[in-house]
Amino acid sequence: MANINITVNGKSVSKDVEDNTLLVDFLREDLRLTGTHVGCDTSQCGACVVHVDGKAVKSCTTLAASLDGAVVTTVEGVANGELHPMQTAFNDNHGLQCGFCTPGMIMSGIDMVNRYKADGRELTADAIRHELEGNICRCTGYHNIVKSIQDAAAKM
Amino acid sequence: MSTKIGDRVKRSEDKRFITGAGKYTDDIRQENQAYAAFVRSPYAHANVKGIDASAAEAMDGVIAVLNGAQLTGDGIGNIICGWAVSSKDGSPMNMGAWSALATEKVRYVGDAVAVVIAETDALARLGAEAVEVDYEELPTVVKADKALAEGAPQIHENAPGNQIFDWEIGDQAATDAALATAAHITEVDITNNRLSPNPMEPRAAIATYDAAEEHYTLYTTSQNPHVARLVLSAFYNVAPEHKLRVIAPDVGGGFGAKIYIYPEEITCLWASMKTNRSVKWTSDRSEAFMTDAHGRDHITNARMGFDADGKIVGFKVDTIANVGAYMSLFSSAVPTYLYGTLMSGQYDMPAIHCNVRTAYTNTVPVDAYRGAGRPEATYLIETMMERAAREMAMDPAELRRRNFIQSFPHQTPVILAYDAGDFPKILQMAQESADVAGFATRKAEAASRGMLRGLGYSTFIEACGLAPSAAAGSLGAGVGLWESAEVRMNPVGTIEVLTGSHSHGQGHETTFAQIVADRFDIPIENVKIVHGDTDKVQFGMGTYGSRSAPVGMSAVVKAMDKVEAKIKKIVAHVLEADEADLVIEGGAVSVAGTDKQMLWHEIGLAAYMAHNLPEGMEPGLKETAFFDPVNFSFPSGAFICEVEVDPETGTTEIVQFTSADDFGTIINPMIVEGQVHGGVAQGIGQALLEQVIYDDDGQLLTGSYMDYTMPRADDLPFFTIDHHATPSPNNPLGVKGCGEAGAIGAPPAVINAITDAIGAEGLAMPATPMNVWRAIQAAKSSIAAE
Ligand code: FES
Ligand code: FES
Predict the structure, then answer these.
(1) Domain boundary among B268, B291, B314
(2) Is A60's C-beta closer than 6 angstroms to any atom of ligand 1?
(3) Does the beta carbon of A133 lie inside 6 Å of ligand 1?
(4) Which ligand gives the minimal distance to the CA of A43?
């Protein structure tokens, strides 16, 4: 058991967590932030992606106890009064169907756009497909997910 | 702003999903909630000699350990198959008993023998591990042909030789006679690989029993909550329908896997009554691979005969289908009435005979997966057409053209009567958008880089919009296959539509609203679609078989007809006008050529105030309708796949994938294209990547995303999509359904393209780099040997 102080979606939280509590369970069960999903048990699908200190991580393979002092953002926290451009782009480009992979796709999408922008690299469609290696979608065939991220990249 | 049928309306349901506010079953928490974990067999076939739960029962936090003897003792019925298919000798199918918790015997790895209910999920899992089951291992069989062979282990007592039925369709004598006269016969032995549907949201259930009311509530990941309630009531005796509410909230994809009522939902309901707690179960992915119904898994020998001009004279098919360890809800219909009836494809075939034997094996049940039977038929027909073209040195598109059905309606020799289509036109559209004319140049350019470029076609038809109830009933269906809807206009003029269709990614909240906004010319924001709750929606048959548009929307249209008729009566009465002069436009009903009108909310108020209604009219403005289709709908399409194969590594890249579809009337092209993208991706997954493998002991070797290859973004191209509509004459909107086309049509297009590239016959799915490389090497050595 450890006490952690973390910031989640701009709010500071102080909680006792078991040593083996996964970040995704902490978010879903303790904080009831159910936008972050669990799609697998082998760290393959990316439905659980959140940002820790500004970087995309799979919350299904991150221990909550290791995050004392960290800043966590989930899909519930990316809109700032109005929708984040990545969220709007998914709606504009029909980048989701059942919506289950969507939170992870949005969080991975924001992260990749940020990284490419910081490095001054161009985020091509091929690069997006490559970057999405850790995110599985069964509904969309990725066509419109790639278009959504391209669209958002132009607006972010 | 008015919204019309055919507009690319953005989805209204997206907002909750992109903000993380979706409500899936696992997101729901009930008061007093406990958790279930299942004790599952590690053996594929074993007698259960005893269950010792004492260690688990003694654990802190374990509330109860329940087993199959208690379940059947409480009168919970066996799980049934909902479609009776008889053998050709008239004998009924041999259905073995399937209890939600196995009693004497387990028949596949993952078969549940007990359930542990505990205070937390972790404690329930620990408890399940502590249950000691005494198994006596039995020999296993996992392949359907081996299961039917002499001396195979017997899986169910009442299915001798593991055969469930030996079924046929078509005319054997006529087909044999036709093949005897053929100038050319193409023969294949072909396997349709076993797949796991893998909706990204794993299955889940939360059951709550209210002892005072003797009433159950079940939240579950279902494509058809009303069917779940019906089956849970009528067959599993959980509770009568009025004592059972089933809610399928947001559901994260289905693809067939969430049609059925599985042991876990039944057990959670029963356990909630036994423990007087809400009982929640959420599958993890490993459990999903083990227990979600799989798809496909056919072994087929087929012969197609042609005359000297390349016209098909006869088609003979002999298939063995793997049904798994138990008969799931549609397991009998998928390899028969959804497969054998499709054997004519887009072609005028004078004689067809298709024989199907189904076998029990020690594997998880096999049932409908996106397309269900139709992909298996299409893969067979379309790879054979292309092989025949190669054997007869004909252009594969030309061979298809010679055989296309040209006039409608067309009665096939295998029950179906096609209503509309224009096959030459969609093939030509696909050829133009794929630039087939420029293919030779692209192939030469690829060759200059050492790459093998190939092009493959698939021209396919599906029977969707399941189904005319009486026709389905005469073929053995255990339910009617209509759909129901209720359209209610509120006093303020907004409209709620309650539909029995269920949306789990299809975007019904947008498209169903679109047909209402179009019809009544009111803002789409004023229309709300309600679905997925048996307490709200009167009844429904749910969403599968591309039926929501052709059947579900048709029911909405029928209900709107009735609402409109009443609206016109009210307006004509209030404005003292003739009904025939009324026009619905711009949020009002007006008298043509005058300035007299009633605004939409004025009509709503008039109906509910009831101060001035026509003589004898009931107050209110709400109508219901049931729509039972008179025929299936027949979406068709032409796919062209272009690949580049690296002969050094056997890797295939899909460089271009083109589709030209005929879905009839299109309500929202954006959503239809999304359905095609997703379906094609699953079809490409089957062709290149996906394969469920059991070893000979029945252990599942592909039990996670590390071993089962899901299509990822960099496995797929952007898709080019065109549409051409020949409206279906059999429903009011002329729609045909679009959900399955991609998964049905794509696999043969991909395999045909790779075969064209490498010049070797007999490539099996999935065409992994290893399989392709081997096929290239085999072709090389057979050329060297000649
Ligand atoms: S749930 Fe984290 S990667 Fe699948
Ligand atoms: S939208 Fe359903 S899994 Fe991606």
Answers:
(1) B291
(2) yes
(3) no
(4) 1
The answer to whether the Cβ–Cβ distance between B705 and A38 falls below 8 Å is: no
Q: Taking a contact as any Cβ pair under 8 Å apart, which residues of chain B between 246 and 275 contact chain A?
A: 250-253, 255
**Ligand that lies nearest to the alpha carbon of residue B200, given by its number in the listed order:** 2
3-state DSSP percent of chain B in helix, strand and coil, to 5:
30, 25, 45
Which pLDDT band holds residue B467 (cuts at 50, 70, 90)? confident
Residue B506 with chain A: CB contacts under 8 Å: 97
Q: What DSSP string runs through B746-777? A: HHHHHHHHHHHHHT-S-PPSS--HHHHHHHHH
Q: What is the distance between the alpha carbons of residues B776 and B646, in angstroms, rounded to a whole number? A: 10
Q: Is residue B155 part of a domain?
A: no
B623 in any annotated domain: yes
Of A58, A77, A96, the last residue of a domain is A77
Segment B766-780, tens digit of pLDDT? 999 999 999 999 888
Same-domain status, B733 and B646:
yes
Same domain, B244 and B342: no
pTM of the predicted structure, to 2 decimals: 0.96
CATH number for the domain spanning A122: value is 1.10.150.120
- Which of A23, A27, A45 is the pocket-test mutation for ligand 1 (most atoms within 8 Å of CB)? A45
- The CATH number of residue B487's host domain is 3.30.365.10
Boundary of a domain, candidates A77, A100, A120: A77
Range(s) of the domain holding residue A36: 2-77
Domain residues for B20?
14-138+201-252+258-291
My answer on whether A32 and A6 are in the same domain is: yes
Mutation choice for A interface testing from B17, B251, B506 by most A CBs within 10 A: B17
Q: Considering the domain boundaries, does residue B181 fall inside one?
A: no
User: What CATH number did the domain enclosing B29 receive?
Assistant: 3.90.1170.50
Shared domain check, A27 and A43: yes
* Mean pLDDT confidence for B310-320: 98
Assess whether the previous peptide bond of B308 is cis (omega < 30° from 0). no
| Per-residue confidence band for B282, with pLDDT thresholds at 50, 70 and 90 | very high
Amino acid, single-letter form, for residue B769: P
Instruction: Give me the pLDDT at residue B781, please.
Output: 82
Mean pLDDT across the stretch A148-156?
Answer: 97
A106–B18 CB contact, under 8 Å = yes
B54 Cβ partners below 8 Å, 6+ apart?
none
CA distances in angstroms from B431 to B379, B407, B428, B657, B719, listed in the order given: 20, 22, 5, 11, 14
Distance between CA atoms of residues B483 and A87, nearest Å: 34
* Any B CB within 8 A of A42 CB: yes
Whether residues A69 and A133 fall in one domain: no
Q: Is A153 on the interface with B (CB under 8 A)?
A: no
Q: CA-nearest residue of chain B to A77?
A: B19
What's the domain count of chain A?
2
Indicate whether residue A15 lines ligand 1 (CB < 6 A): no
Number of domains into which chain B is organized: 3
Per-residue exposure over B601-631, b if at least 16 CB sit within 10 Å of its own CB, e if not: bbbbbbbbeeeebeeeeeeebbbbbbbbbeb
- Nearest protein CA to atom 4 of ligand 2, as residue: A137
pLDDT at B205 over 90: yes
The per-residue pLDDT for range B63-84, each reduced to its tens digit, is: 999 999 999 999 999 999 999 9
pLDDT tens profile B623-642: 999 988 888 899 999 999 99
Place of tokens 């309606």: B409
For the ranges A78-92, B230-244, B475-489, the lowest mean pLDDT is seen at: B475-489
Regarding the beta carbon of B200 and ligand 2, being less than 6 Å apart is answered: yes
With residue B152 as reference, give the H or E element that holds it. Answer: none
Q: What is the mean pLDDT of residues B637-650?
A: 97
Distance from CA of B252 to the nearest CA of A (A): 5
| Portion 57-86 of A in contact with B at CB < 8 A | 74-76, 79, 83
Residue B786: the pLDDT is 58
Question: Is the Cβ atom of A27 under 6 angstroms away from ligand 1?
Answer: no
Q: Is the model more confident about B127 or about B731?
A: B127
Torsion on CA atoms B112, B113, B114, B115, rounded to nearest 10: 0
- Please give the share of chain B, as a percent, with pLDDT higher than 70: 99
Residues B84 and B206 in one domain: yes
ipTM of the complex: 0.98
Q: Let me know whether B436 and B564 are in one domain.
A: no
Are A10 and A71 found together in one domain? yes
Q: Give the pLDDT confidence score for residue B1 in this predicted structure.
A: 59
Centre of ligand 2 to C-alpha A24, Å, is 19
